[in-house]
Each structure stands twice: as structure tokens, then as C-alpha cells.
Design a protein that fits this description.
- Strand 10 and strand 11 form a beta hairpin.
- The protein has 290 residues and is α/β, with parallel strands linked by helices.
- The chain has two domains: 155 residues, 3-Layer(aba) Sandwich (Rossmann fold), CATH 3.40.50.10170; 128 residues, 2-Layer Sandwich (Hypothetical Protein Tm841, Chain: A,domain 3).
- 39% of the residues lie in helices and 24% in strands.
- Helix 3 runs parallel beside helix 4 and helix 8 packs parallel to helix 9.
């Protein structure tokens, strides 16, 4: 039997995971040296409380999980005779997958008859979520691991994600975004526009002054890059910026008929890098960038 895994950095919630059949790997964050594992140390994510804490001046840190964690997640399924497909956030953004590789190598020596497959979404948060849910659909349809991997060869790079941030100090702290030097102004209301590139890295591609212009910039990318978006999910995410996210949803619904739009909270681990008042959109595209 094939079992599927994803991680909390993809914004999938336990409720959604259960619908698709996913098992979840928790990616931690730390505040004041206290490490929290989402959906293991709490059942539901209180996004407002978390992002309000960040507004107060807290700067969280994130870290890789240990080899043993991966063994604890995967070994029970290998032991009972299952193969594993893990659909994960971008390998290019973290060293945690080095620990995973070591853990899996040891497990496959112990269980040589088992198979371990991965799909790198080359994204994080909703850029990954869109792919995770599409693969969840394929899994529910009974597709094999090989069929899913074949789908991923072309489709992973066809899910674009664009977002804007409100406070650059979180990106400065995390160091996860390239190209930010040109946006590091001191003017109030400057918002960097960021996307996930084909290598699975966050890249700043410009800036806008004011929320309205930032939202309009996101909509313009959907219009210019969108491909058959009505047949796929459009996912809008925010870090405790519900009104802005709803405004984006409203504009998209006016421009397109019958969109399948999901509105989600950005998970706390990924949100630690961008901070509060971030809004983004993920959609099926001709390619990830203009």
C-alpha cells in the first residue's frame, strides 16, 4: 500500500489532511528558546494570537528536525509493509532534508523491499498547498506513485505563487529572500513583491507603495500568467490580514467566473519568515514568472 505524507509548512491542516489521506510532519518554530511543533503541541492554530505576538516585537526562529524525528514518522509504515510518497516544501529553503535523506537511507537498509518517493513542490505555504491538494486528488483517484511522479514532472512548475509583505524585519531576520536589497526602503507602506522561482527559492521582484497597489500587482500576475485557472484551485493566504485577503478574493471573483477559491491562514513556521499582514495568491500558470 502507498501512504502519503506532507508537512505543516505546506499550510495543510489536520482536517484537510484527513480528507486526502495525508500523514503530517510537523516543522517547528521557536520563540524565546521554546520550540513548538504545529498540530502536535496544539490542535488548532490561533493565527490572530500568533501574529499579534509577532506584532509586539517577537522574532521567531525556525530549525531543521532531527534524523530521529523522520525515523519516527516513517518507520511504522515501512514496518507494516507500506511504501511512502512525501510531498514536501522546497528542499532549496532548508537543511532539514539532509537529515531526512540520512534517516531514509538507514530505514531502506533495514527495509530493503520498501520504496520511498518524494515530490519537491519547490514552494512553501500556498505554493506547496496547491500541489499537495492536487496530488491528494490523484491519490484519492487511485493513481500510483509512478503516475503521480510523472504528473509532477510538468505540473509542479505550473503552480505560481506571489505575495507581498508588510514588515521587512522578518525577512531580514530569516535571510530567506534574495533580491531584497533594492526594496529595503524606509518609506512607510513600501511592500516587497515576492514569488517562488523554479528553483524553489523566494525572490523579491519589485515593490509597491500602499496596499491597494500591492493587491493590484498580485491580480496582474494572475491575469498575465494564469492558465486554465478555472479548472484548478486558486488559493489566497494571509498572516492575520483577513480584510486584505478578502479584498483580493473579491477582485478575483469579479474577474473570473466560477473560481474554486480557498482562503487559508499561513502556518506559523512559514509565517515566522514573513511576519504579519502578508497576503499572497497561488494559481495554475503557464510558468512561475513572466
Amino acid at each position: 500500500m502507498l501512504v502519503i505524507f506532507t508537512d505543516t509548512d505546506t499550510d495543510l491542516t489536520p482536517k484537510k489532511a484527513k480528507e486526502f489521506g495525508y500523514h503530517m510532519i510537523s516543522m517547528p518554530y521557536s520563540i524565546d528558546s521554546e520550540t513548538t511543533y504545529p498540530y502536535e503541541d496544539f490542535e488548532e492554530f490561533d493565527a490572530h494570537a500568533f501574529y499579534d505576538k509577532l506584532r509586539s516585537g517577537v522574532l521567531p526562529n525556525t530549525s531543521a528536525i532531527a534524523e530521529q524525528n523522520y525515523k519516527d514518522y516513517f518507520e511504522p509504515y515501512f514496518a507494516q509493509g507500506d511504501d511512502i510518497l512525501y510531498v514536501h516544501f522546497s528542499r532549496a529553503m532548508t537543511a532539514t532534508f539532509e537529515n531526512m535523506d540520512k534517516a531514509v537511507a538507514e530505514l531502506l537498509e533495514k527495509y530493503p523491499e520498501r520504496k520511498f518517493y518524494t515530490v519537491d513542490t519547490k514552494g512553501i505555504t500556498i505554493g506547496s498547498l496547491n500541489i499537495v491538494e492536487e496530488i491528494g486528488d490523484l491519490y484519492q483517484q487511485g493513481k500510483t506513485a509512478e503516475e503521480i511522479l510523472e504528473w509532477a514532472k510538468t505540473e509542479v512548475d505550473k503552480f505560481a505563487v506571489y505575495f507581498f509583505a508588510d514588515d521587512l524585519k522578518f525577512f531580514r531576520h530569516s535571510g530567506r529572500v534574495s533580491g531584497l536589497a533594492g526594496t529595503m526602503g524606509t518609506l512607510l507602506g513600501i511592500r516587497p513583491i515576492i514569488y517562488m522561482d523554479e528553483n524553489g527559492k523566494m525572490v523579491s521582484i519589485g515593490k509597491e507603495k500602499g496596499k491597494a497597489k500591492a493587491i493590484a500587482r498580485l491580480v496582474s500576475y494572475v491575469e498575465e500568467l494564469g492558465e486554465d485557472i478555472e479548472s484548478h484551485r486558486v488559493i489566497v493566504a494571509h498572516t492575520d490580514a483577513l480584510e486584505l485577503a478578502q479584498e483580493l478574493v473579491s477582485i478575483l471573483n469579479e474577474k473570473y467566473q466560477g473560481l474554486n477559491i480557498e482562503l487559508v491562514d499561513v502556518n506559523p513556521t512559514a509565517g515566522s519568515h514573513c511576519g504579519p499582514n502578508t497576503v499572497g495568491v497561488s494559481f495554475h500558470a503557464k510558468r512561475r514568472t513572466l
